[in-house]
Amino acid sequence: MVCLHLCLSVCFAHSGNIIGSGIFVSPKGVLENASSVGVAIIVWVTTGVITAIGALCYAELGVTIPKSGGDYSYVKDIFGGLAGFLRLWIAVLVIYPTNQAVIALTFSNYILQPLYPSCLPPDSGLRLLAAVCLLFLTWVNCHSVRWATCVQDVFTAGKLLALGLIIMMGIVQICRGHYYWLEPAHAFETFSDYDVGLIALSFLQGSFAYGGWNFLNYVTEELVDPYRNLPCAIFISIPVVTFVYVFANMAYITAMSPQELLASNAVAVTFGEKLLGVMSWIMPMSVALSTFGGVNGSLFTSSRLFFAGAREGQLPHLLAMIHITRCTPIPLNFHYYPPDIYTLINYVGFINYLFYGVTVAGQIVLRIKEPNMYRPIKVSLVWPVIYLLFWAFLLVFSLYSEPVVCGIGLAIMMTGVPVYFLGIYWENKPQCFHIIIDKITHLCQRLCMVVYPDLEKNQEPSDHQTKDTDGQNEKISLGKTADGTCV
């Protein structure tokens, strides 16, 4: 009974981590590139199946290389330090900042759309509100761990309320006979010509909504009984998420024509206005709560990933420091955020899938290099091969359809190669180099008031220790700054 309860808890947490803001922004991008309602539904189902296959491959890697850090740890161990660093580098420069920008722009879309019922909100207003959201939540994450986790807990309810309403109203619409665009005779009516490159982009748009499927691989070391709970979470949570996403998209199309959906920048708002009448305000409020919490969650988790990378020595040591009293990783909470939401999704989707494929290829390489290695979970090699075939299709045709967007992502990734060789691989650097780096680090430490942490659980602080201002059990021993100055 206890095992069942634990397994269900893991499944619920995994489902909650996958279901996020993507379902409120991706439907328009998926439909636009799929060219018909029927193909869009097929894309949502297929993306769910491919996500499940990828998760199975990651499950084997997760228990074979039982390190927290997910694909960063697997790529680093299988292909070496350079490959692992490039995964971390692209996460720092592209993946997390872009994810946060997309979710923040979705938040501002759903806040402003009701104020502009007859037209689209102005771009300047969208970007300004997105920037305010990011700056405010960056401040929250810098100020207090407890505040950040409270924001996450409170605002998670938003997405559950919004999706529950959408699916229930969709069922009511189908029962009333409003399913014209779901009938096979009409579902495949095209509003633009089919194009294999655009369909590949449709998969990238859909994959954004499934982001978070590899979350458990980032906490494998902390997961209780991973040999049982990891596959259990995959077999239950991903089909549930796929069901929710498919039915949410079917619900959208029972209230709107494809043209109406494509004309809306806030699909759930338009859906609510069509069906909820005077209560339509519930929908933008719920989605805004969901996306606000989504930005906060992305800021929180990204800072911890980069913190781990810095402690491994693959990012500047400054990023492994925390505030002297608030115990938050302040240097990690500042990123660059670019504009244009659907281009951003293609941008981050391409880079994400690039490394998903490299990681799954690593599973096959590990089977060849270490055939006798202990594998508590061992899947058939048919699954990684299927995943890699789909991966090759997606990357080739995405690059063909969006050569500039995908090319920029690849170029940014390759800038990490000289950084790796100069910063990590080259060990015998001149003394002047270390002096300059130490001075820059020391200056940044003074500006951000951060030091290297020395975590000691359940011990009272000494003269050079301070408690977390939120009253947590961890005591932070504040040792020395970069130049040896005691704090």
Automatic annotation (TrEMBL):
Main location: membrane
Keyword NADP: no
Leader sequence residues: 1-15
Gene3D superfamilies named in the record: Amino acid/polyamine transporter I (1.20.1740.10)
Pfam families in the record: AA_permease_2
Keyword Calcium found: no
Biased composition (Basic and acidic residues): 459-473
Compartment(s) where it occurs, according to its Swiss-Prot or TrEMBL record: Cell membrane
TM annotation in the entry: 36-58, 78-96, 128-148, 160-179, 199-220, 232-255, 275-295, 344-368, 380-401, 407-426
Domain of life: Eukaryota
GO molecular function term, any single one: L-amino acid transmembrane transporter activity
One Gene Ontology cellular component: plasma membrane
Keywords: Amino-acid transport, Cell membrane, Disulfide bond, Membrane, Signal, Transmembrane, Transmembrane helix, Transport
Membrane topology note: Multi-pass membrane protein
Segments for region (Disordered): 459-487
Protein name: Solute carrier family 7 member 8b
